Amino acid sequence: SRRAQLRLCLDRLKGLVPLGAAAGRHTTLSLLTRARLHIQKLEDQERRALHQIEQLQREQRHLQRQLEKLGMERVRIDSIGSSLSSERSDSDRGESPCWGTAGESSGRAG
Q1: Is the pTM above the cut of 0.70?
Q2: Which stretches of sequence are listed as region Disordered (predicted)?
Q3: In whole angstroms, what is the distance from residue 12 CA to residue 2 CA?
């Protein structure tokens, strides 16, 4: 019957809504009032959670941009470092045979 269906729905609602001290005795009106307040509380929590998600996403995008900047700076610094390193190694290679030649010629002389 319709009344039995309504009672079943109210019992289900009672299981979903925190009733606190009023759990033992409640009227349909008090149950529905508590349900409404509980729904409003959940909606407020959802709004705050969505706001926090938006803030965290903004922060994540900001940090991602900073990370990309640091990555570009690192590539630039690495390329400067590698060009300096190759210049040094070229000059080292240029000097190395001279030292070796000088050492060999003096070794042959002795």
Answers
A1: no
A2: 81-110
A3: 15
